[in-house]
Amino acid sequence: MARKPPLLPAEALRRVVRTARLDGGGILAVAGFFALASASIHDVNGAAVGLLVAAGGAMEFHGAGLLTIGARTGVRWLVSSQIFLLAVILLYVAWRLHGMDISPMRPLLTDEQRSVIAGAGFGIDEFLRLVYRATYGVFGAASLAYQGGLALYYWRRRAAIKAALVYED
């Protein structure tokens, strides 16, 4: 299979800006919505986490804007936003795992589910703790892959972006 030639710097810059605008704008909108929803029900912790995640999206969106006007510092904003988001998410996961509360999950189980769980040799609380840990573990791992992958994507395009911005000057 023949290798494709590398992208032209201008095309790499265009793709990075498009990706950052979509990702940053999406994160900003969704996290902002959930921060407001949490604040409306007086969930201070949820609102704080939502605002921190929204701040990461705003950082990414800002980085895209800097690149659009020709400022090379935009790449630093893009990479930093992903590292910031990853740190917020992993700290949130650790916080949730440390303060695990399965009591709201118990009433959600039907009698049929309870019998299947018991038939599998698990106690109800044991099973719910396992599901809780697995859910947050998968969330943390997926975030590591996604945010880490985006940070790497932005970082590896530094030279092409620099070339594209120098060419546009």
Topology:
Layout: H1 9-40, H2 44-68, H3 73-98, H4 111-119, H5 124-156, H6 158-168
Helix pairs in contact: 1-2, 1-6, 2-3, 3-5
Walkthrough of the structure:
The protein is mainly alpha-helical. It has one domain (9-100, 109-163). It is built from six helices and no strands. Helix 1 packs antiparallel against helix 2, helix 1 (9-40) crosses helix 6 (158-168) and helix 2 (44-68) runs antiparallel to helix 3.
Instruction: Compute the CA-based radius of gyration.
Output: 21 Å
Q: Low-confidence parts, pLDDT < 50 over ≥5 residues?
A: none
Strand content: under 5%
Which structural class do the helices and strands define? mainly alpha
First-residue to last-residue Cα separation: 37 Å
The global form is elongated
Number of strands: 0
Helix content: over 70%
How many helices? The count is 6
Biggest beta sheet attributes: none
User: Residue-averaged pLDDT, rounded?
Assistant: 94
Please indicate the count of domains.
1
Q: Could you spell the SSE succession in H and E letters?
A: HHHHHH
